[in-house]
Design goal:
TIM Barrel; eight-stranded parallel barrel; 46% helix; alpha/beta; single chain
Length: 334
């Protein structure tokens, strides 16, 4: 399908609410994770939300945030063009410091939605910043996600040593005042590597925020950041509590690193010269009879393994979210 924009994404969230499922929004920084995700979601016939963070865009752009965003966005557009599912792009944890790039994303219709993160600011300043991005996006069809509350841990430039749970009453005022299309809330998850059993998870806060917004006549999906360590039963409880998008990054990073580590440990003798062989990388070992094996060091070989591992993790996670078999694309086998 051609690239799916914000209005189509709004439909997907409404379908998720009606169907009682959610989306695992998955961060990407390079092709291997993206290809693994696309394979998994096409196989499952599930619409997919991929996310680009500022650090991912800088990495993909060799330090140039704007170039990296354009490159990743275009790659996602092209690889998803002929797929039987919708693929959406969300900017993840962009701040006021990246406002120029946010403007570029809106003007170029590079993404489906934008998360503006001013959660570390005082309430009034968070409102002001979030509302300014909503105003920027008006008329573009691009949705805006804002965050209220603090999540412990570090994600890109956002770092907090403590959890600040979202106040349901503040949530209603925040969404009403900012006009945000989605609301990321804090209920006890943490960024990075965590163990779900150790988290003081407050599903009741999600339920109360969801009820407050609904009672206020607001159809606003709730988002949960820092969800990589959650157990399956915690994911299902969060979805029952009103969460419609759960962000995943660390989980895929580990699958990537684990696959590469295991592969290179297994093939170390085919890549690293043995004792007695001059370690002349620049001339590809001209002396002696030993040569490295191309099938072991060709990055495409380990890349295909990484793609398969990411695909496996993605299938496991989307099954938790319940989005398998759910796509807006007509004529799908779903």
């Amino acid at each position: 399908m051609p690239f799916a924009g914000g209005e189509r994404l709004r439909e997907a969230y409404r379908a998720a609410r009606a169907g009682g499922y959610a989306f695992m929004a998955s961060n990407v920084a390079e092709p291997n994770v993206l290809i693994g995700l696309l394979d998994a979601y096409v196989e499952a016939r599930s619409d997919l939300i991929v996310q680009i963070s500022p650090s991912a865009a800088r990495f993909a752009g060799g330090g140039d945030l704007s170039a990296g965003l354009r490159g990743l966005s275009r790659m996602i557009h092209e690889l998803s063009r002929d797929l039987p599912i919708d693929v959406f792009i969300n900017l993840d944890h962009f701040t006021i410091g990246e406002i120029d790039v946010i403007g570029e994303a809106i003007e170029g219709r590079l993404v489906s939605s934008i998360m503006i993160d001013a959660s570390l600011e005082e309430f009034s300043e968070n409102v002001r910043i979030s509302r300014s991005v909503v105003d920027m996006a008006r008329g573009s069809g691009i949705l805006v996600e804002a965050e209220l509350g603090k999540i412990k841990g570090e994600e890109d430039e956002i770092s907090s040593d403590e959890t600040y749970y979202t106040d349901p009453d503040e949530a209603l005022e925040f969404v009403t005042t900012t006009g945000a299309d989605l609301l990321a809330i804090s209920i006890g998850t943490e960024h990075g590597v965590t163990k779900g059993r150790n988290l003081a998870l407050r599903i009741d806060i999600a339920e109360r925020v969801d009820a407050k917004l609904r009672d206020g006549g607001l159809d606003v999906p709730l988002v949960l950041h820092g969800s990589s360590g959650l157990l399956p039963e915690q994911v299902r409880a969060a979805i029952r509590g009103g969460i419609r998008k759960l962000n995943k990054d660390t989980h895929y990073q580990y699958a990537y690193g684990r696959a590469a580590c295991e592969f290179y440990l297994e093939h170390a003798k085919a890549i690293i010269p043995p004792d007695g062989v001059e370690d002349d990388v620049f001339n590809l070992f001209p002396s002696g009879d030993w040569n490295p094996e191309k099938k072991a060091f060709d990055p495409r070989v380990v890349g295909r393994l990484i793609q398969e591992r990411v695909k496996g993790v993605a299938r496991f996670l989307l099954d938790q979210a319940g989005s398998g078999g759910h796509t807006l694309v007509r004529g799908s086998d779903a």
